[in-house]
Design a protein that fits this description.
Blueprint lengths: L2 E4 L6 H10 L8 E4 L10 H14 L4 E3 L3 H10 L13 H9 L8 H14 L2 H9 L3 E3 L4 E3 L14 H6 L3 H6 L5 E3 L12 E2 L4 E4 L2 E3 L10 E6 L3 E5 L5 E5 L6 H14 L1
Parallel strand pairs: 1-2, 2-3, 5-6, 6-9
Antiparallel strand pairs: 1-10, 4-5, 7-8, 8-9, 10-11, 11-12
């Protein structure tokens, strides 16, 4: 059995379809884990959400999608908890435009209320409910899977929801030695340079594995296969790439590979 882990998608529906086509996944036994942030920034957010929702609904035992901080920001906006989602840096205006077919213009208090009402109306109710039902972590025999990271190296069940969704803790990136933890959220070019493994751009240091390889025209969408440590990547221009990582793997992760190899014999 393998686990395929997909990093932050951010509306890149064509790249998502491309990377899923690359995977040698046995749907009845292999796991597929999405680390969250399906929405915002990219060209086809509704398509991404619907594709992942369909996959999860069709095979709930083996397809898991976590909640990302971008889904949380959207829910907080809908629930009137805060307004972060409509700030320019989040890319939420792209999601708004794609669902409502009109630009996001916010000048008065009434504009915020109208925008909230409109996006709540235009996003299908089953998609909003899907966001609300997303777990904050997943665990299997190979690794822990979270959107952002762990709180003081604790197990996700002992970490705060805020840490799982938002943390950018250098101690976690540099000094985490527990069960391997695969995370997204922080683009790997912004992670400590010592852990950036090879030209494919993922981050591996001690037991922390970052696979959000960024969002721009040159950035790949990345999927990591465990326990074999194969990378599958697709690019905005239609290219794809596969990498077998054999070096710079910390001892804790090599032990995982040896155990899997023994079980296959």
């Amino acid at each position: 059995m393998k686990t395929f882990v997909v990093g932050d998608i951010h509306g890149r529906c064509a790249q998502l379809a491309g990377v899923l086509d690359m995977l040698p996944r046995e749907e009845s036994t292999d796991k597929l884990v999405f680390l969250g942030d399906l929405i915002d920034r990219g060209p086809d957010v509704p398509g991404c959400v619907e594709q992942v929702l369909t996959l999860c609904s069709a095979n709930p035992e083996n397809v898991i999608c976590l909640r990302g901080n971008h889904e949380q920001m959207l829910l907080d906006f809908l629930d009137e908890a805060n307004m972060i989602w409509v700030e320019t840096a989040t890319g939420g205006e792209r999601t708004f435009e794609q669902y409502t077919e009109r630009p996001l213009r916010l000048r008065t208090a009434a504009d915020f209320d109208n925008a909230r009402d409109l996006i709540a109306e235009k996003i299908p109710a089953n998609q909003i409910e899907f966001f609300r039902q997303r777990p904050l972590y997943h665990e299997d025999e190979y690794a822990l899977y979270v959107h952002a990271g762990l709180e003081n190296g604790k197990h996700p069940r002992e970490s705060s929801p805020h840490a799982l969704l938002w943390t950018r803790d250098m101690d976690f990136y540099k000094s985490y030695y527990g069960k391997p933890c695969v995370f997204g959220h922080t683009p790997t070019p912004f992670l400590p340079w010592r852990g950036r493994v090879g030209r494919h751009g993922i981050y591996v240091f001690n037991s922390a594995i970052g696979i959000d390889t960024g969002y721009n025209l040159q950035s790949p969408l990345t999927c990591l296969s465990l326990p074999d440590f194969t990378l599958y990547q697709t690019f905005a221009d239609g290219r794809n790439a596969t990498h077998q990582i054999t070096s710079f793997i910390p001892e804790t992760l090599k032990e995982m590979q040896r155990k899997a190899a023994t079980n296959e014999v």
